[in-house]
Design goal:
Blueprint: H1 6-25, H2 31-50, H3 53-74, H4 88-91, H5 95-119, H6 125-152
Helix pairs in contact: 2-3, 2-6, 5-6
Amino acid sequence: MENVAPDQARAALDTVERARRRVADEVGLPRGYWWAMAAGWVVLGVIGDLGPQWLVIATTLIFGAGHSFLASRLLNGRRRTDQIQVSAAVAGRRTPIVVVGMLFALVALTIGVAIALDTDGDRNPGIWAAVLVAAIIGFGGPEILRVLRQWFGA
């Protein structure tokens, strides 16, 4: 190894960096996380529109506690599957910030859609807004997270 030419060393380092980026691009949250989040979103929308106030508060607290539990295990984005766990340096330390920001944006979208539907006279605006956002979360969550990670260099 003592007679490695500079161009060979550069080519080897470039190969390693490409492989590292390929692994980092695969980092994310498991598909089940997104569908569990979508189901919870719909449940909150239904209870928010049809349930008594105490149930809305209790369910919101339970949903928040459940998400906190999941987030503490998954939010670092390093374990998309059971087959791989990468270091935080490869996964990107901003992944949790991107996920939390994405969730805030989805909450804002839900509220905006519900307000628009309520203004239009819909009888259950929270349910329909929750179903719309749940579909976005369930079907597009991993892809949205992947794009946001690229945009923010996470």
